[in-house]
Amino acid sequence: MRGFRTAFEGQRIRHVTVNRPDLRWPFPLDLRERLEGQDVLSFHRRAKYILMRVGKGTSMMLHLGMSGRLLLGQSGMNTTPSKHEHLVLETENGARAGLVDPRRFGMVDLVATDQENAHRLLSGLGIEPLSESMTGPYLHSLMQSKRTPIKTALLDQRLIVGLGNIYVCEALFRSHIHPTRMAMSLSKREANSLAASIQAILTEAIASGGSSLRDYVQADGTKGGFQDLHLVYGRAGEACLKCGTGYPVSRITQAGRSTFYCTNCQK
User: Fold this and answer.
1) Cα 156 to chain center, whole Å?
2) Which of the two ends of the chain, N or C, has the fewest CB atoms closer than 10 A to its terminal CB?
3) Per DSSP, what are the bridge partners of residue 69?
């Protein structure tokens, strides 16, 4: 979203190209007509959704899904578009954004700007992890009634949005909390530590450009760098970086997702 905002905010959309009828769901039939000629007023993020606000009270909502990329460049200077480039936005000053999504798990929709939070995909979402409301006491109260493993609870977007599998593993490790612990067993001290770890890790990850494990890249096409800072994720069998060679990182599966942790640090 930050790269998209830098290139598009304050610009007028000159041309919209829709190269297929759908991704996960169909594109709005009037997407091109409602965006062309409109000024890009501002950007907003909710969970993993990007909201581009344009004139006439309209917002374009975008989610990249599992494999989507939003690649920025200049009109007329790009190489041959990928066969998986499904949507292109171009501004009057020559900025170009191409949505590339091989698996088509992403989505694009239009919503009235003043009704963004009422959209069916946003209305049931939980707290933003980087907001001021994300405190230890709040996290403790949120988990008190949850009879599920803490790892599973943290991935529940109805409770906390935007936390992916990588960052939950890393936050639990930093807070010395075993991933199979019941969420309701979290102490106030542990909740304080976990809330701080979540915010620190997300801040570090954003500054590093995210984690590029397979096909994720930033808006300028470069890979992220936070994967080089992982302490447990993807390191099964390797020595724990805090304990030394005596304690390897373990891997288990929870709710169909891989969980990485240290049996010594997270007892």
Assistant:
1) 13
2) C
3) 100
- Is the Cβ–Cβ distance between 205 and 227 less than 8 Å? no
Residues 160-213 have pLDDT tens digits of 998 989 999 999 999 999 999 999 999 999 999 999 999 999 999 888 875 544
Given the DSSP bridges, would you call strands 107-112 and 40-46 parallel, antiparallel or unpaired?
A: unpaired
* Helices 188-207 + 165-174 axis angle, to 10: 130
pLDDT value of position 212: 44
For 152-243, list the strands marked E by DSSP. Answer: 239-240
Asked if 242 and 250 count as a contact pair (C-beta separation under 8 A), the reply is: no
Q: From residue 225, how far is each of 178, 207, 211 by CA, in Å?
A: 26, 9, 6
Task: Give the SS3 label for residue 7.
Answer: helix
**Listed range (56-70, 166-180, 217-231, 239-253) with the worst mean pLDDT:** 217-231
Report the sign of the C-alpha dihedral through residues 27, 28, 32, 38, in that order. negative
- The domains found in the chain, sorted by start residue, are 2-118 (3.20.190.10), 136-262 (1.10.8.50)
| Closest of 108, 69, 66, 96 to residue 85, by C-alpha | 69
Contact indicator for 218, 224 with CB cutoff of 8 Å: yes
Where do we find the tokens 């049931």? 124
DSSP letter assigned to residue 11 = -
Q: What is the pTM of this model?
A: 0.84
| Amino acid identity for residue 160 in this structure | I
